Amino acid sequence: MSQTTDRPQRTDDTSSSTPSPETETVLAVDDLRKTYGDGEDAVTAVDGVSLEVDRGEVVGVLGPNGAGKTTTIKSILGLVVPSSGSVEIAGVDADDDPRGVYRHVGAMLEGARNVYWKLTVRENLEFFAALGGNDPDAARSRHDKLLDQFNLAEKADDAVNELSRGQKQKVSLAATLARGTDVVFLDEPTLGLDIEASLELRRELRRLADEDDITVVLSSHDMDVVEDVCDRVVILSDGRVIADDSVEELVGVLETQAYRVVAAGQLPGELRSRLVRDYRVENFEVLDDRTRFDVTLGDDDSLHGVLGVLDHAGHDLLDVDGLEPDLEDVFLDVTGRASGGDGR
């Protein structure tokens, strides 16, 4: 739950998941499947995933561990051969022309060293541009622009292993863009970064989409990053898409009625137990001469009921604030329902 939402500023209205007539689909995935093994021992990691992503759109891919996120992304990239289904990137069929697809995509995968640490920053950009078939000299102006955009110009001739963790992440992203890609796949791009470096990278991702019209497919366990950066969220569970909509629409559908309550005095254990038993109360915190807690109301609950319990026990109400649902609440709700639970 969050009381305020501070998202990076967008230069246009991309909050709606409904494509406008001017949108161009640059990634089309249809009924993608990946099964390991045969017969009774077969394990399906990706089970009929279909999605479309437009140019300049930032899409987050979420799911619990084992949901198929990594296998889906690697299947789209051709790093894992899918069992069936189709992938088109920038109008190029990945099965018919994998080299043609490669010219349009870049990837920064978590757990992989995405650049060469003994090379300088500029040498890395030149190397990865050359891998994409670019003439390094012809790409120099693009590289100069990337160095400026990522505040790496002064580090251009430094070896990557001399840089901070945040700067190394920037070099990895710049190298991914060095050959002029249309679609960028990022797996846990802010992992291990401090708050300042993480916020800076989030702003840069929004700028890539808003100003450079680059499409970003982002996988992360950090809900704040996804909520700050993404226009749309795709949630996977057991290899299937169980939700696909804008962040705003997903949060709006949840319609949680949640409040943060501050009551006078320290609530005794028996009273706390009653509140937890009869209402969805959590996060008790004692603050000197007062107690703060959060309550989420069910269909048959009312805030007056909670406040009445406090009043009857002799604890005055000091403050009540409404809490807005956030993307983490949505994620827990839809994945809980998909796995057979009651969601929230």
From TrEMBL:
Belongs to the ABC transporter superfamily. Residues 1-28 are annotated as: Disordered. Residues 27-263 form the ABC transporter domain. PROSITE patterns: ABC_TRANSPORTER_2. The keyword Coiled coil does not apply. It comes from the Archaea. InterPro entries: AAA+_ATPase, ABC_transporter-like_ATP-bd, ABC_transporter_ATP-binding, P-loop_NTPase. It comes from Halobacterium jilantaiense. Residues 14-25 have a biased composition (Low complexity). Keywords: ATP-binding, Nucleotide-binding, Transport. The lineage of its organism: Archaea, Methanobacteriati, Methanobacteriota, Stenosarchaea group, Halobacteria. This is ABC-2 type transport system ATP-binding protein. One of its GO terms (molecular function) is ATP binding.
